[in-house]
UniProtKB/TrEMBL annotation:
Name of the protein this chain belongs to: pyridoxal 5'-phosphate synthase
Cross-referenced NCBIfam families: pdxH, PRK05679.1
Upper lineage: Eukaryota, Fungi, Dikarya, Ascomycota, Saccharomycotina
InterPro entries the UniProt entry points to: Pyridox_Oxase, Pyridox_Oxase_CS, Pyridox_Oxase_N, Pyridoxamine_oxidase_dimer_C, Split_barrel_FMN-bd
All residue ranges annotated as the Pyridoxamine 5'-phosphate oxidase N-terminal domain in the record: 65-173
Length: 241
């Protein structure tokens, strides 16, 4: 019986052709070999455990350890949107980020869906932290506290940018910013107050997963979970890699 199996040469040629048709094909396998994570290493609170890992990242040469992927989902479409933002504060209740909450895409998502997620990646430690939680708005006073320490240019930029709106070109944005700079020309940095459309949110976690890369993709995944943001009782479970 002849199954017409390809010769090695024919097979090699077909693989080469397949590679040519792909923009990315079989990149070299990266191995995670630096650390492990066990249950007895964790502290009682995921916020405190995050703080511990974050401090380690800060003390290393990890570039911008506060950078984080912030994901939101618009309802009823279910369309998911992600972007990098910077974690600016951490308190006992959750993770704080600051941005435009008037015209931005994430504002429209949060209006329809209170759930959001954060994903941190620290390559130097081969670690990830994944947060799922509920969005809470900060008060104007809380937002002003952080806004007050921003550089002058960032303060004016918060007033000027109609975030996520379509622009004709860069020159259009430059004109908007120049007009705002002129408007605030006589004010000191401290006199430029937080715009109503700009401010902070807190992602209050329902689940926080600590992911430590391991050899052969058999990663350590330990997740803190709770049923409601009103309870401080966390269950820690190990997840299959």
């Amino acid at each position: 019986m002849n199954l017409d199996l390809p010769t090695d040469k024919t097979y090699d040629e077909s693989v080469k052709t397949e590679k040519k048709d792909k923009l990315v094909f079989a990149p070299e396998t990266y191995q995670y070999t630096l650390y492990t994570l066990s249950e007895d290493e964790l502290v009682n609170s995921p916020i405190e455990q995050f703080d511990k890992w974050f401090e380690e990242a800060l003390k290393s040469d990890e570039p911008i350890p506060e950078s984080v992927v912030f994901s939101t989902c618009s309802l009823p479409s279910g369309r998911v949107s992600s972007r990098y933002v910077l974690l600016k504060e951490l308190d006992k209740r959750g993770f704080l980020i600051f941005s435009n909450w008037d015209t931005s895409k994430k504002e429209k998502d949060v209006e329809t869906n209170k759930y959001a997620s954060l994903t941190f990646l620290w390559k130097k430690f081969q670690r990830q932290v994944r947060v799922e939680g509920i969005v809470e708005r900060l008060t104007y006073e809380e937002s002003q506290e952080y806004y007050g320490v921003r550089p002058r240019g960032s303060k004016i930029g918060a007033w000027a940018s109609p975030q996520s709106k379509v622009l004709k070109n860069r020159e259009e944005l430059d004109k908007i910013v120049a007009a705002k700079e002129k408007e605030f020309e006589g004010l000191t940095d401290d006199e430029i107050k937080c715009p109503p459309k700009w401010g902070g949110i807190r992602i209050v976690p329902l689940e926080v997963e600590f992911w430590q890369g391991r050899q052969s993709r058999l990663h350590d995944r330990l997740s803190y979970r709770r049923e409601s943001i009103e309870t401080d009782e966390w269950e820690v479970v190990r997840l299959a890699p």
